[in-house]
Amino acid sequence: FHRGYYIRARAVDHCVQDFLLKTQSHPGTQILSLGAGFDSLYFRLKDMGLLRHTVVYEMDFPDVARQKATLIKRMEELSALVGDTGGEGSGIITCSGEDYRLLGVDLSELSELERALEEAGLDTDIPTLFIAEVVLAYMDSSRSDALLRWAAERFPRACFLLYEQMHPGDPFGRVMQQHFSQLNSALRSLAQYPDCQAQQRRFLEKGWTECSVMDMNEFFTCCTPEDEQQRVQALEPFDEYEEWHLKCSHYFVLTASKGMEPPWTPLLPNMTVPRRGLVGMAGSIPAAACAAHSGSAGLRRYGHRSVLIKPNVILTTGGFGEEDGQHCRMRSFHVLIKHAGCWRAGCVKKESPDQRWDERLYHTVSCLSNSLALVVGGRTSPSRAGLGMLELKFPESCGALDPDDVTVEVVSLQPAAEPAALRWRHSTTEVMFKGEKYLFLYGGRSATEPVLGDWYFLHTPELSCTAIPVEGPVPESRHSHSACGWKGGVLVAGGLGAAEQPLGSVFFLREVEHGFQWQTVETHPPLIPRYSHTAHVHDEKLLLVGGVWFHSPSVPGVTVVDLMTGLCLDYAIDVEQLEWPLMLHNHSSVFLPNEKELMLIGGGGNCFSFGTHLNPKPVLLSLSDILMSH
Q1: What whole-number distance in Å separates Cα of residue 419 and Cα of residue 421?
Q2: Whole-number Å distance between alpha carbons of 61 and 35
Q3: pLDDT level of residue 91 (50, 70, 90 thresholds)
Q4: Exposure string (b/e) for 153-179, b if CB count within 10 Å is 16 or more?
Q5: Overall domain count for the chain
Q6: 404 & 507 share domain
Q7: What is the mean pLDDT of the chain?
């Protein structure tokens, strides 16, 4: 929430101050804030001394304008900035000062709007900036289009600043639209203008000659100075990267102008990032809800881990979800067991109810044997130190049991390697060196380090750190990456880097005579940078599932990388048979090699102010067609 509203205010301030700077040589300018609500922009600009020759007109529905006028008059500091408010204010003009007019008027009634502005002293011949922050989206397209055309025709020297939502059709966008519909504030123009390109065409067709637009991820990366980015990132404990980036990819800032010399271009980036158009999909994979029985409700969670502890038995631990009717960090474990072609879900019993689990998120789980798994790291709050290691012991016969009869014993550990485990969003992968098994612990983040690039080799019997030489180009530090075993080594793909930017690199850590060696895996076309995905290897093919990426109107599905040729193909997930938005970040996935199927478990998150979405059921993807086609 804090970052989301910060970036909105930052974008508006950036563009408004640029307009005031570029027009400071003019004897007079004006700002028209459409649907201003209780915005404090005028008071901030006035207090900063930036309105020396600018008049600000604010417009909103009459009852809103009257409430705001009352607030201003009650507060000495605000009324002093406005100056002479001309008594109580009456009719359309509810508050008036030397450089401030507050008007109660319906924006959709153009003749009424124009009459009100004339009465308030508007000068159509001087440079004018229109501001619409999440306003036009609530109007019928025909009325908002008429407003844009009127502004372009009526004002010879005009600029327009627009901030609002986009991408209504993807999972986050569907949750967003549902939220506004439930508030009886439907986003009326989103279907007609669903993305940046449509909005740009809209303005150019309505009489504006210059138009630039970018989503808020691009604005933060390219128009916000690096030191300011770092200041914001360090303000408070933060671990909601997926939600932040998805929110920013569903809002845009647009600037348009006409008759301005030189042209008004406040969105010129201080650095450039590659923009991607539509991702070329090689095909689609149908998704089907897993017909597990009633116990699958406990799998509605994110930030958890799921692992195939033996054929047809999947154990899910940790994460944030819904338990006993409340959203919370999950205390219960769940198991999916396949009997006679049908999956059944159930809640796992802990042998002792007080066994310490710590309700962790973003941990890893690695199977060490048919009856033993190792939990490494994870967190409760991002402001606290990461959690250490636990063993999970389960009966070898659990595959033959009813899911509700499976028991797990949680064993606290304090091995010598414990300090290495105090992290989250990392990976642990089994590797082989000189015939012995090790767990390769890599990357992640901690309470003090926002991104880690170190690694450890844990010798599994006694969980001690072993020094094994590693050569080759060291990968960039990262968390929320994927890592999976291949040929006794590890394939690391994607992740979020030090600047909170997704990475598109793939590395292979392979065994050599005296240790291991990092090698870069070249892909063509280049892998689209992503993070918060999952990964599996099957028949010399790396499968990347879901995640978050930037600057693309589509969402990640399944990407197949041929490890022999480097060919990289993206496949969309066909969700037509699902009755809910499928959010594939912070999820887990298990590859079932015999069936060539992927089981997707959980996923979702907090969708800004629109509510928390948790995928309600596990989902099965059949990969047999795409694996055969490679």
Answers
A1: 5
A2: 8
A3: confident
A4: eebebbbbbbbbbbbbbbbbbbbbbeb
A5: 2
A6: yes
A7: 92
